[in-house]
Amino acid sequence: MMLFLSKRHTARPKFTLRLLTAVVLALPLIPLSGGAAMAATASRAHVTISDGRLQPSSVSISTGGVVSWTNDSDYTVTLSSNALGSHSLRPDGSWSYTFGSAGTYTYTATSRTESGRSTSQTGTVTVGGSGSPPPSPSPTPPPSPSPTSTPPPPPPPTPTPTTPPTPSPTAAPSPSNASVMVGDDFFIPKTVTVALGSTVTWTNGGSQHTVTCTGSCGPQTFDSGSMNTGATFSHTFTVAGTYNYVCVYHAPGMSGTITVQ
Hints:
The chain is mainly beta. 5% of the residues lie in helices and 39% in strands. The protein is built from one helix and 19 strands. The strands form five sheets. Strands 1-8-5-2-3 form a five-stranded mixed sheet, with no helix packed on it. A five-stranded mixed sheet has the order 4-10-9-6-7, with no helix packed on it. A four-stranded mixed sheet has the order 12-11-14-17, with no helix packed on it. Strand 11 (178-183) and strand 12 form a beta hairpin. The longest helix is centred in the first third of the chain and has 13 residues, at 14-26.
């Protein structure tokens, strides 16, 4: 998959525009190598983030397509999901992602204004096949049956008793790792569900915070201590249950939940 960050520029020199025009006009004159037609490129989609809203909030592309996000607001926006990870866009910043597998991807855009108010909006990206599906055939009506005399049905056979199969024991889910981003006054995602034996890693992208679960917060306790910007903290969950943790500097508003099954 291809990941990159870029800055949006609103002004371009006239010379650049003239050069691009000349290149576009010259493209039909370039012969194709070996007489073969060039393959069509994957589709693209663009999402603009303005005043805490995704425009549009749902896009559809073909497999191998690219979605670009541009932050037109005056504050930093964080894009996050289990599939795409977490990425911060500063004002006027852009970020693009190439989707190599078909499916539906859900992500969250979280922004925090200068007044301290946080807003979140959920968006979706639907990735389909590279080609158009064939048209559905028109249904052919069945021929009308000729009326015939119906013989009486034979008596039903005597059922043979069968022994139900022994159910196989259900295997416990395999451990899997999860990541949580620590920001100023929030955890993303706020709620995480993992299997027994999984490891959760917190990465601090804000100011000084903690990841603390003490007292009766859950079956086990853990505490990261004070985490500076860029610091990480990991904990492996060996006891099933629900864990409610907080940042001791910003509790109770800054809190999160880990569910271990």
